[in-house]
Design brief:
Shape: globular
Largest sheet: 6 strands, mixed
Structural class: alpha/beta
Oligomer: single chain
Number of helices: 19
Strand content: 15-25%
Length: about 450
Amino acid sequence: MDSIDTTHKTLDPATMPAPAGAAEAREGRGPIRFGLLGHTLGHSWSPQIHERLGSWPYQLVELEPDELGSYVREGRWEGLNVTIPYKRDVMAFVDDLTPEAQRLGAVNTLVRRGDRIVGDNTDLFGFSWLLRRFCEANLGGIDRLRDEEVLVLGSGGASRAVLGALEDSGARAHVISRHGEDTYETLLERHAGARLVVNATPVGMYPNCPASPLAAETLATLPRLGGVLDVVYNPERTGIVLAAESLGIPAEGGLAMLVAQAWRSSELWQGHALDEGLITTIEQELRSGERNVVLIGMPGSGKTSCGRELGSLTGRTVVDLDQAFAERFGRSAADVIEHDGEDAFRTMETEVLADYAKRSSQVLSCGGGVVTRPENLGLMRQNGVVIMLDRPLEHLSSRGRPISRSRGVEALAAERMPLYHAWADHIVRCTGSAHGDAIEVARLLGL
């Protein structure tokens, strides 16, 4: 077996391949080795994954429907992934279909074998890999799903691989959709004994996050529910994952599925086995690289200065939410608080947080009172790890902070400290310098 380079590599977004049209891809300077076909691709994590797998360079190719057939048949490529809306359409242009593609009625991987084009489907492998690991960690093994009820939300293309994997596990899968026998309205009446829920809809996908197809109140009425899975991978924690976690129910998004299906595609293209451990390694690298670092703590604890230093250390975009607030509304936080009241400010602050927290690879420095709105926690955690900076009260200043001045630092601390501690994934005791605080946060998170 050929050796695989497993050293850590960080890709500069500026060097990532931009989406190409069919004509550019087909008639460019040279053949494309590997790539992703779709209509509107936007930001894709596939190039980063395939660079680590060795199936590189990897090109994003955006096609119009009338370009699909000519590109598949005439384009110069070695291996391609296919995403929405072409997973079924592309079947008309291949010479052979693997049993997996035939079974699911969809193709997400194209492989050249001599002069023939083979359509395969690695989504089945990807979800099966995620499902097996999740069950081993949370349910006592994949065998525990046999004869159990599993609810699959959504009847679109994404549910095909989910249903195939659940069928292989021996589970009794039921598709929940807006129409038909099993609907969201009849879910509790017909399937109160469900052991697992899988979201196969796009609800909650970036940028429309953290929406959820099921509310936490609905999940709470399923007494045997042992887990929730979501095929969506961006954000890291979708609305339904956050809802499940709020109830203490194990839950996971679709990043592992994304990496696992790419791993299998890369094996097919390169023609040799790859180390399966790469799936977990790449998944962890992506989580670490894309996850936001969200700084909370008392006013004056040094979040802004620590955030700037942390951004310099890690290469992340730095966002001071008070500054972002002023840029959006043309007024400072202090001005809004003094003239419109704290409630008006908190509503506006949540709006700004919701916009930035859905993005990735940032350092977010939050205002001290962000913890007073419970909905802000889900916004932070959908794509971030929450760090509390803990500075002794006697070292905090109230200068330029109207709420600290009006209520007093001690009164604010009594109100907010329990919230900071409850919200934080990690607490960092301030070292005495912003640079030292940033180094400690980076060390703690392995950045």
